[in-house]
Specification:
With 341 residues, the protein is of the alpha/beta class. It has helices spanning 31-36, 72-75, 97-109, 122-129, 134-146, 169-180, 246-259, 277-280, 287-293, 321-324, and strands at 12-14, 17-18, 50-51, 58-59, 64-65, 81-84, 114-119, 160-165, 186-191, 230-234, 263-267, 271-276, 298-300, 314-318, 327-328, 331-332. The longest helix has 14 residues, at 246-259.
Length: 341
């Protein structure tokens, strides 16, 4: 946990629960998993949460409640955007409902902060947050933390944003319908690491007849409308990182612009595009020269394949994350949801 964070779209991280399991391709190079099995492996909050493998540390599926850390948001007096369970998943399979209730109770009680909850288990999140008795349970649990409960002015909680990670089209189509069925003030998607082309435009449009297209975006808080409120996009970084085609990011940017959804481009990751064959070399005369000049690079095509043949072939070169930066076509995209009172 940290009251400051290098993650561009948040201010702080809060890890009341640590530990997770691998569920999809986006988990392969999870930074939290690698840290838990290397630099942090002897710290109480991470010890035993991973096992060694030929590919490096891998989550065991064990999860841990770091109870002293539950109180951290109360100690932070200045309002922050807080990324919840940055080194785990609040809705992971082995996390008991009682732990999740504790986290929601703190988020309701320390309501001067905004909490950003990101999960790959959208079905469980929907089921938990949709419980008819959840608000009563939060009130009952509140006395454990503060000896009394204030009235919650709105439900769903006005300061809790719920999101899901979608690294490819398959995962998007599995998780986003569940997310849109989940009660939330703000629903967002993190397409990071982005591993292929992604069309999520249909999830950006209002799903009710009270918010016609010409009124997009609907006012935040509409009880009859469900749509994505925010999209984060980023490439993968670190050892073993997989490259992201620039057109995948551009497509999501354009989908957001067309549907007036805030777009946040987080990073290119560990690769930088150095050559666009169709733009710079329509006759294919420079390909061998580019390949020799970038021996650590890779050929990437639009469909997601790594190879020279295909549509929109580009050459990407491995570079430091800071050098690759977070500018998309010369523009820094840092839009955030605007929340009405």
């Amino acid at each position: 946990m940290a009251d400051k964070s290098a993650i561009e779209w948040t201010d702080a991280t809060w890890n009341p629960i640590t530990g997770c399991s691998v569920v999809s391709p986006g988990c392969t190079n999870c930074y939290a998993m690698k840290l838990a099995g290397t630099r942090l492996k002897n710290i109480a909050s991470r010890k035993g949460l991973t096992r060694d493998s030929k590919a490096g540390p891998v989550w065991t599926g064990e999860v841990r409640l770091n109870r002293p850390w539950l109180w951290q948001p109360f100690d932070w007096k200045k309002p922050r955007r807080i990324f919840v369970c940055a080194h785990g998943d609040l809705f992971a399979e082995n996390v008991p409902d009682e732990w999740i209730l504790d986290v929601f109770t703190v988020m309701a009680a320390a309501d001067h902060h905004t909490y950003q909850v990101l999960t790959k288990r959208t079905e469980r999140m929907r089921e938990f947050v949709s419980r008819r008795d959840l608000l009563d349970d939060i009130y009952g649990n509140w006395y454990t933390f503060s000896g009394g409960a204030r009235e919650v002015q709105s439900w769903p909680l006005h300061n809790v944003w719920l999101g899901t990670s979608t690294e490819d089209q398959k995962r998007a189509d599995e998780r986003l319908p569940e997310l849109l069925a989940t009660p939330a003030k703000v629903r967002f998607v993190s397409a990071e690491p982005l591993l292929g082309p992604l069309d999520i435009s249909k999830y950006m449009r209002p799903l009710c007849d009270r918010c016609p297209p010409w009124e997009v975006p609907c006012r935040i808080g509409c009880q009859h409308c469900t749509r994505l409120d925010w999209v984060i996009v980023g490439g993968e970084s670190g050892p073993g990182a997989r490259p992201m085609h620039a057109d995948w990011a551009r497509s999501l940017r354009d989908q957001c612009v067309n549907n007036r959804v805030p777009f946040f481009f987080k990073q290119w990751g560990s690769f930088n595009q150095v050559y666009d064959r169709e733009v710079e070399d329509p006759d294919w005369r420079r390909c061998n020269v580019v390949e020799r000049a970038t021996p650590n690079g890779q050929w990437l095509n639009l469909a997601g394949g790594q190879g020279f043949h295909g549509d929109r072939v580009v050459r990407v070169d491995r570079v430091a994350k800071k050098l690759a930066g977070r500018m998309l076509d010369g523009v820094e995209h840092s839009a955030m949801p605007e929340i009405a009172p």
